[in-house]
Amino acid sequence: MQTHSGYVSANDVISDILPVVDDPGQKKFPHEWYIQQIQNALTELAYDTYFDERKESILIEGCSSLQLPSGLVNLKAVYLFNGDKCMPGIMQTVWHARNYVRDGEQQFKEQRGTQVDPIMDQAISGSTQHALYYYNTMGDRIMLSDACRAYQKLFVVYNGLGCDFGSTPTIPHFLREAVKCWVAVVALEIRNAQDRGAWSAVLATQQNRLHGDSRNPGAWMRAKRRVQSSDEKEMRDLSKYLTGLNAQLI
Question: Which of 61, 165, 175, 202 has a Cα at 20 to 30 A from 86?
Fold first, then answer.
């Protein structure tokens, strides 16, 4: 029987990150934000592809913020539809808008410290925002533009597992440092922008650990090489482990 000895959970990685970004109580960034950044890092490393591809329909019922399926790691595609089945010809694609967030009924707010998003800055205007289909995610929720509420259901295609992502050991030890540094850099970039450069030195240290240089590759390059060099058996073993997690944890 396989064990969890070679893997850590997202919550374990968060415990690594908090002292680095000086956020022990997760007051600067909520827990869901850290989870999402870890998911983003795993996607950038192409590790999300080891998780099962899953599909699920979610009732909209006029809501703009919906609960995503448990265990979601990477959202691959989002569609709107009416009726019983999501099919080509009757489904509407929903596009990802990176800086889009909702605050109650308010929408199209940009998160401070994030990069400029051409969708937000150019495609969306006051006269067209109610006719456009966009979404963004925050933690375990998906936020929809107002136009999406005209449809009955949301259809999501994602990589994930059938249990809680945060507490389940799904991240191999060989990716732990890279994911930690990647998320720390994102958090420190935001804090540095908000605090007028007060975090520059700490940010530079973490960026060096993440990227390294030509002579000493950083954690990110080492992790990418490790994933890319995985042989066929190791890839099968990883997928088998992740697929079997749900059964082991029931």
Answer: 165
pTM for the whole thing?
0.82
Q: How do the domains of the chain map onto residue ranges?
A: 7-50+167-249, 52-160
Q: How many other CB atoms sit within 10 Å of the CB of residue 112? A: 9
Radius of gyration of the chain (CA): 19
DSSP code of residue 27: -
For every one of its 250 residues, what pLDDT tens digit does the chain have, with 9 covering 90 and above? 334 468 999 999 999 999 999 999 999 999 999 998 999 999 999 898 889 899 999 999 999 999 999 889 999 999 999 999 999 889 999 999 877 888 777 766 554 444 455 444 444 545 555 678 989 988 788 999 989 999 999 999 999 988 889 999 999 999 999 999 999 999 999 999 999 999 999 999 999 999 998 889 999 999 999 888 877 788 888 888 888 776 554 4
Using alpha carbons, list the distances in angstroms from residue 223 to 77, 122, 189, 218: 26, 35, 22, 9
Distance between CA atoms of 5 and 7, rounded to whole angstroms?
Answer: 6
Measured in degrees and rounded to the nearest 5, phi and psi for residue 52 equal -60, 145
